[in-house]
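Hey,
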Amino acid sequence: MVTKKTRTSKKRVAKKTVTRKARATTAKKTVSPTAQLEQTITKSQTQLAGLIAKAATQAQKSVDRIKGQLDKAVARQATQRDKKNAAAEKVKANRTAAAVKALARTREALRIAGQKSADLRAQLKEAKATLKTAADAQKKSAAQQKVLDKFESDWAKASQPKKRKATKRRTKKAAAPAAAASASE
């Protein structure tokens, strides 16, 4: 059984039209290429200062993280040293195959812990060098920005039109009472 589709007709409605307001034509400001370049440089300097600060904070975080890891590794190494000493005492007291194996395992664990501590010390040294470099770059950037800001403020002051001081002119009316007062003395 096949059913026929019924077609519905759309109502025809008149299109609504809205009159557009005439756009006010504004003259675009033309920026000179030198001004555009100066803006680009300023923007780049700001981005550079941000990146330098970010690098310094990341270096500091890295140093802190490695210091924490080194502290834990040194604590583990001390624990392993204590275990090795205890195993050595056990071997001295009673030399058995199990005690000797336990001593060998603790010596190996102590060696591994010492190697890990040495690796972390090397990483810490590198991280501190990176931090020093980043801190120096940040100081340099801050000094450059300070000098540039001072130059800009000095330049703005120098390029402002000079204001003339209004000089007081003595008028005849003001001069007459002053002259009369000096004559009466």
